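#structure-requests
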Amino acid sequence: MPDAQPVLHDKFHRLVERAQRQQPVATAVAHPCDEVSLESAVEAAKLKLIVPILVGPAARLRDVATRAKLDIGAFEIVDAEHSHDSAAKAVALVRSARAEALMKGSLHTDELMGAVVSRDAGLRTARRISHCFIMDVPGHSTALVITDAAVNIAPTLDEKVDIVQNAIDLVHAMGVSDARVAILSAMETVNAKVPSTLEAAALCKMADRGQITGAQLDGPLALDNAISPEAAAIKKIASPVAGRANVLVVPDLEAGNMLAKSLTFLAGADAAGIVLGARVPIILTSRADALLTRLASCAVALMVAAWQRSTAFR
């Protein structure tokens, strides 16, 4: 009898089911003016993950809904002139405490994030804003968080402290008590000629001193040593993280982007995405994402919003 095939993306299904134990979160959806982004909001509302407030040109939103046969009659619509106006008004809904999450529609990510990071009218906190991919890799036992592969291009050591802490908080918000963070490099030994190994060692020592909290850190670790117990054993790396990491901190955006896309296109992984470090979680979806992936991003945002509420994070 042939071996049973693994269930693809079962971790995202479990993620959605876990999120549904919480009350849906009021979410400002910025400019959902195409079928994919509007469908994301409608389906997430059906699953009681979000309560959408649709922000965009009202006539255009209704036209998209009619053509796509999507029922938006129960949703509040905030009329906006264009995409930049949609982003500003969606952020304003958060600032006025009418929404606890922000969701990207069919506008460019730069437009939305420009409104988010505005010094006068944005959603900045003391934390550095960073992005996390939550990867559902078929055949891997747990979801993998990869950070930062989308926002910070070449983060400094100080910025990496916030990037790591954001990811740790995400893991806790998702209901995982044991956050195991691997600081990745090309090798598992400290080498003065490879700056990422020095930063990895510094981050681990900062965690020892309480400057990063809520997780076990190890690094530098090469990717194989971070996620493969066999590889870690061969290299004789003994730590609670090596071979068992559930958070992968990459040296820079280029490395993170290549890692995430390699898992997606070579290993068949799906990647939910969320931006952290602002006042509220920000759902970034792509038109190329499968519906389940978009819903998983909404589920993660719901759990983060609930966690922030319970911890008075701002």
